[in-house]
Amino acid sequence: MKAPVRIILGSAVIGTVIAAALLSLFWTPYDPTAMNIAERLQPPSSVHLFGSDPYGRDIFSMILAGARGALGVALAAALIGIGLGVPLGLWAAAGRSWVDEILMRACDVVFSFPAVVVAVLIAASFGPGARNAVIAIGIFNIPVFARLTRNAARGQWNRDYVWFARSAGRSALGISLTHILPNILGLLGTQATIQLSIAVLADAGLSYVGLGTQPPMPSWGRMLEESQTMIGFAPWLSLFPGLAVVLTVLGLSLLGDGLGALRRLHRSPGE
């Protein structure tokens, strides 16, 4: 699949998810937290588009509200990683060797564990909740962006324009912020979409084990956990939240892959 096609498809999917999240701020067909036992376990119909759960809550309304939570956690976690990881990476690339060595060894420790496992350990230590889920996922994002920034920035420090800037008396901080950072923003943007997709999965996993978003706020992961014993006679309970997670991650992955392919093509037109 060509890069423009991946970008278009990914943007369409993510645009739909964002629109659903924004819509849930102002309107949902039903209150996503309101129980109505008289309409429990209703199959998909014109009354309940995606059916209802064992408590009579409207699944479609819960999916819309869950999109807001999933994207909010993922975006906040990505901002933590960028806000702390990028400065650390720039510092390591421009600083002394011991700074670089300490940062890389810390990254190796974090990378020795899967992202979801790290998030579960941190969330379990701090306690359940959306805020702690953001902190847990964001902590894992920091070394990701730190190492990426460090590697990309070190390559830029060998360029001629950096040599001229140093000859003109520019400080390492000034060169990092005004020359190097703008040249690696495309790479960081591509990585950000990848980390967003990982964060959506991590948030769903944390909610699935009870460490993420807490009731009564709907969560795709918790919807999957609550539906696992009823898949045989009420498959819509797991089908729609599962599709929401899969499509969101797929859309972000397509967007990230497409942006990465375009960036590589721009750097090497002959390839």
UniProtKB/TrEMBL annotation:
<keyword id="KW-1133">Transmembrane helix</keyword>
<keyword id="KW-0812">Transmembrane</keyword>
<feature type="transmembrane region" description="Helical">
    <location>
        <begin position="7"/>
        <end position="27"/>
    </location>
</feature>
<feature type="domain" description="ABC transmembrane type-1">
    <location>
        <begin position="67"/>
        <end position="256"/>
    </location>
</feature>
<dbReference type="InterPro" id="IPR000515">
    <property type="entry name" value="MetI-like"/>
</dbReference>
<feature type="transmembrane region" description="Helical">
    <location>
        <begin position="233"/>
        <end position="255"/>
    </location>
</feature>
<feature type="transmembrane region" description="Helical">
    <location>
        <begin position="106"/>
        <end position="126"/>
    </location>
</feature>
<dbReference type="Pfam" id="PF00528">
    <property type="entry name" value="BPD_transp_1"/>
</dbReference>
<dbReference type="GO" id="GO:0055085">
    <property type="term" value="P:transmembrane transport"/>
</dbReference>
<dbReference type="InterPro" id="IPR035906">
    <property type="entry name" value="MetI-like_sf"/>
</dbReference>
<protein>
    <submittedName>
        <fullName>Peptide ABC transporter permease</fullName>
    </submittedName>
</protein>
<dbReference type="InterPro" id="IPR050366">
    <property type="entry name" value="BP-dependent_transpt_permease"/>
</dbReference>
<feature type="transmembrane region" description="Helical">
    <location>
        <begin position="132"/>
        <end position="149"/>
    </location>
</feature>
<keyword id="KW-0813">Transport</keyword>
<keyword id="KW-1003">Cell membrane</keyword>
<feature type="transmembrane region" description="Helical">
    <location>
        <begin position="70"/>
        <end position="94"/>
    </location>
</feature>
<keyword id="KW-0472">Membrane</keyword>
<dbReference type="GO" id="GO:0005886">
    <property type="term" value="C:plasma membrane"/>
</dbReference>
<comment type="similarity">
    <text>Belongs to the binding-protein-dependent transport system permease family.</text>
</comment>
